[in-house]
């Protein structure tokens, strides 16, 4: 039984070209980048080349890229780094959207426990954050606003540029979690207007355990990890050379094929949506319908059925009932709650996300399997 993988928002496979570039740095090129001998210099040069590749993808300066262990660390460094550098504990205020990933929400909650103010801004029924609501939430003591570039569950792309203009008019920094957008759609920092941007390698065909944070020149952060002065003094620890090289190669691949890949992913997503809607007699509802969405993401609600039960009937289909970070929870996800879905509706939610290696045949087969399971499932 061959698996059909439609969970690219949870993680992507490592691209073959990325796998190839890792291997020499696991065997022959094992030097410490901080060492001054030949092996160390070779690794240092490779890391800096990877930094340049990521910078080119984002349209920024190479020295504005800080390598981390992934999206969670990047988000923590951005949020805690700004807040703790601002001043004494509790002296400041943060604004977040209500649909943020836990890797953004939980660092903010931690700061809230230390006395920082925290305001969560809602969204409309499509999952779009209103820039005017962000403006209304900003206070004189606000030091940072964080709004994700695109939602990991329903795919809504946020009006980051408009939010950035509001923040900068009030001298407030803006961070965006772009883990779901970098490598899928154009994510040029100058067009977005953000001050900090997080990305995760395993969302863009690089390994798990590597990520990066863009930090605009002139912004001072307090390090989360203290030690030797790696990564411009912002991220202590000997560099993960093989995975850093991998992230650089993944960025090169994405940069070379971005528009073409986005069009293909959108075609596959729309094909899948059409077949599911036709097969349910248009009873299926689509989350974020009518909003600008990620080209690869389809979040749907099967009426009168349990999404989890449907997927259990189809062991060859790798998909999810929501974000991987919420998959073990029985509580309604913050995103689905924020767009106003009832618990009964979200019971039937399934998230399907396609990727570079998804085929039309897999999309058609997945739709057929889901519709058969929907028809067979006895509503409990």
What does this molecule look like?
The chain is α/β, with parallel strands linked by helices and 380 residues long. It folds into 2 domains: 4-11 and 258-376, Aspartate Aminotransferase, domain 1 (Alpha-Beta Complex); 16-253, Type I PLP-dependent aspartate aminotransferase-like (Major domain) (Aspartate Aminotransferase, domain 2). It contains 12 helices and 12 strands. It has helices at 16-26, 38-58, 71-86, 102-113, 131-137, 160-169, 189-192, 241-279, 307-312, 334-338, 343-346, 360-376; strands spanning 4-5, 65-68, 93-97, 117-121, 142-146, 173-177, 196-200, 211-215, 285-286, 297-301, 317-318, 349-353. It has a 7-stranded mixed β-sheet with strand order 2-8-7-6-5-3-4, with helices on both faces. The protein has a 3-stranded antiparallel β-sheet with strand order 9-10-12. Helix 4 (102-113) links the parallel strand 3 (93-97) and strand 4 (117-121). Helix 1 (16-26) runs antiparallel to helix 8 and helix 5 runs parallel beside helix 6. The longest helix has 39 residues, at 241-279.
């Amino acid at each position: 039984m061959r698996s059909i993988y439609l969970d690219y928002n949870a993680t992507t496979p490592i691209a073959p070209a990325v796998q190839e570039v890792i291997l020499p740095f696991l065997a022959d090129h094992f030097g410490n980048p901080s060492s001054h001998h030949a092996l160390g210099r070779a690794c240092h040069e490779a890391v800096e080349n990877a930094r340049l590749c990521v910078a080119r993808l984002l349209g920024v300066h190479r020295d504005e890229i800080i390598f981390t262990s992934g999206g969670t660390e990047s988000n923590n460094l951005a949020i805690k780094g700004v807040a703790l550098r601002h001043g004494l504990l509790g002296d400041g205020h943060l604004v977040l959207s209500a649909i943020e990933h836990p890797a953004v929400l939980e660092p903010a909650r931690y700061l809230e426990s230390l006395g920082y103010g925290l305001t969560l801004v809602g969204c409309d029924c499509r999952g779009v954050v209103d820039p005017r609501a962000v403006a209304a939430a900003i206070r004189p003591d606000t030091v940072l606003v964080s709004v994700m570039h695109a939602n990991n569950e329903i795919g809504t792309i946020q009006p980051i540029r408009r939010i950035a203009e509001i923040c900068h008019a009030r001298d407030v920094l803006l961070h965006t979690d772009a883990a779901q957008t970098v490598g899928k759609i154009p994510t040029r920092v100058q067009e977005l207007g953000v001050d900090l941007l997080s990305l995760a390698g395993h969302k863009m065909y690089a390994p798990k355990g590597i990520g990066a944070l863009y930090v605009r020149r002139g912004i001072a952060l307090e390090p989360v990890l203290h030690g030797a002065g790696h990564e411009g003094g912002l991220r202590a620890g000997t560099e993960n050379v093989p995975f850093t090289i991998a992230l650089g190669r993944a960025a090169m691949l994405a940069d070379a094929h971005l528009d073409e890949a986005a069009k293909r992913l959108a075609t596959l997503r729309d094909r899948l949506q059409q077949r599911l809607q036709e097969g349910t007699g248009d009873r299926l509802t689509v989350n974020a319908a009518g909003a600008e969405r990620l080209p690869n993401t389809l979040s749907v609600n099967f009426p009168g059925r349990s999404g989890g039960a449907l997927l259990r009937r189809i062991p060859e289909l790798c998909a999810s009932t929501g974000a991987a970070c919420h998959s073990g929870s029985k509580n309604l996800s913050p995103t689905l709650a924020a767009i106003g879905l009832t618990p009964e509706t979200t019971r039937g939610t399934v998230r399907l996300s396609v990727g570079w290696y998804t085929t039309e045949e897999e999309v058609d087969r997945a739709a057929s399997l889901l519709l058969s399971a929907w028809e067979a499932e006895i509503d409990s």
